[in-house]
Protein 1
Amino acid sequence: MAAAKHTIVALVADRPGVLNRMASLFRRRGFNIDSIAVGHSETPHLSRMTIVAEGTTTQVEQIRKQVEKIIDVIRVQDITSQDIVTRELALIKVKATAENRSEIMQIVDIFRAKIVDVSAGSVMVEATGDEEKVDSLYNLLKPFGIMEMTRTGRIAMPRGDQVNRRTDVESEK
């Protein structure tokens, strides 16, 4: 079975150390985390964590079971095979001159990105979309000179009525 990127979503308690325990578990099992994003969920005092890691389905299922045992984890799912929506946010600071600024703006426009900061020698672009879109925009802006870039990593949710949230049965552990 070949290794592939998996998207794992966990609902966790908003408590100090939860992120560290999750990351340590992946490290101990020899998994490299490609990206990890954490933010508040629709439920007070719970956060949704999206982790992207590479492994076989069997390996990822084993680590999912281990993550589920962490006391502050309410629920964890590998949603890779589900019908999901994924997004990533990137801020890209690009060298810009009076001569090339309009060309940069055209590229940004094509990708439905936004220019969020302008200075005499640069523009900062905000891009949202799937990883391929962000990669493509980056590659087109690279010849102008990338000064800095930061990316959030993947966030994901199942489409439609599917949910990954705490239910009445899954009360406090």
Protein 2
Amino acid sequence: MTLFYLKLAITPLLMWAISLASRRWGGLLGGLLAGMPITSGLVMTFLSLEQGTDFALNAVPGALGGLAAVLATYAFYLYATRSLAIGAAAGLAIVFYGLVAYVLTHWGHLYVSIGVALGLIVLLIIASGREPKPETLARVRHRYWEIPLRMVSATALLMITTHLAAWLGPQTSGMLAPIPVIAWPLMVFAHVQNGRAGMAAMVRGNAIGAVGVLAFYLMLSGLMKALGVIPTIVLAMGTAVALTVVLAGLLRGR
């Protein structure tokens, strides 16, 4: 019961904080924060505590396939919105995510997922940097229901994924862990409110943050048996944040 209340408390608070940071400091920072292993870290933590360490470790290959699929979805959306409306592109991108995630987690290989993820990170950083950048972004009107809707959606996905984990199995549970339930609403809202420049900044931040997510899962796979659940997740999260900050700093002038 304690874990249930932790899920209800932590997830919406994180979504609220990231949404406010994105409003205050812009899409790139929002993308960086949303791209870090926040939702996926919570999912893996609760899977480990509720289903056991072996279950969580068996979910890592699926999570890496899901991460590559998430990045493929961003690329799809970035290019699809050049000719399609936002709603149509977002709907097709979600379908595309399901197809790619299924292929990578059921027919792919761990190293294939890692290679695809790294290739897509490079592609997204380059492609987002080539999007037009207006001199100023228009001041937008934020609706009162935006952040509560994001908080509810993020919490619902975490609750559903962890509650159904035993039935879904480790592979599918892992595949669902990286679903960008925080990043997707942020990206679409940024696109609607700030145009392609706002959306591209969010995509770029998510791509940079994905490097940390990749490191997070690899550290879980290599250290959880030796160190235990909580120490490994804390260390992996710290490493993910450090990598994201360093890479963002290196790419800041580009």
Protein 3
Amino acid sequence: MPLNEEEAVLLAAAWRRLAGGGPEAAAVGAELLDRWNEPHRRYHTLLHLWETLRAVDVLQEEARDADCVRYAVWFHDAVYEGRPGRDEEESAELAGRLLSLIGVEPGRVREAVRLVGVTAAHRPEEGDADGAVVCDADLSVLGAPADEYLAYTAAVRAEYRHVPDRVFREGRTAVLRSLLNGPHLFHTSFGREHWEAGARANMLAELDRLASPAPLDAPPP
């Protein structure tokens, strides 16, 4: 489901509040919105950006620098070609270049770049408050109601529509099991209290679907 008109306006306004209204910031904001709106995306879209920023608002009291986390969210999937690891690396490089261009303080630029990198594995170090918030915000969809989770999984499958079904099932299963085998999915106290149980139920149900011979639902390209 795409952003509605009101959400799109609010998303643009959120960038202006964060980065300011100068011409350089406006240009960077426009580039980011264009990137997140690329036609090949199905899940990593403006809606995902919007929902991840809203999750940061929920978790911001647990962050050390919530605005730095917000910068990281704007950039964390700015480069998205379905290449795990490399996409995050190039997104981090883009963050370093464009945040410096709009005059963000160098220490905050370095931290935002680091946080983008943390989203590659979603395993922040113990005591990394901002890493915990950016990871939990990015994965908050895992704890969504079942119907929203199903829409998320269908959109992810559509982004990998070029991947054969067997290969996709194997790769997706490995990702889910890796997350579930950790001591917890979420790293903030709010995430563990409010999203953890629902996320585990959603992911276990998805594993059952992946093991079934029934076709995986995916929206058309």
Protein 4
Amino acid sequence: MTLGFAISTFVGAFIFPFLISMCWGKMVEAWGAIGGWMAAGFIVGTTWALNHGVGFIYQSGALVDQAWAAGVGLLAGAIYSGASLKKSVPTILSSIVGGAIAAFVIAMSG
């Protein structure tokens, strides 16, 4: 991976959790559940287009690059802001189980 790919991958991976932490909650507060759906479409869709359409993220075969970026970025942001890592363990474990189930379903359908 070249330095340019490394920098663009870092930037692409940073944008996703940054937008989630800055916008998603505010959209839900302002518009309720429909705001969550709008956030999902706008934030995830726009970031996906930047990362995969424009090519910010250098992809070497992983299918979960944005999921890793969101998970690691939001966890790091929460820890940096003073949240407890211990309280996030059930969410992390649930995410791993959900990801494993999703990977299994995708593997079986193709």
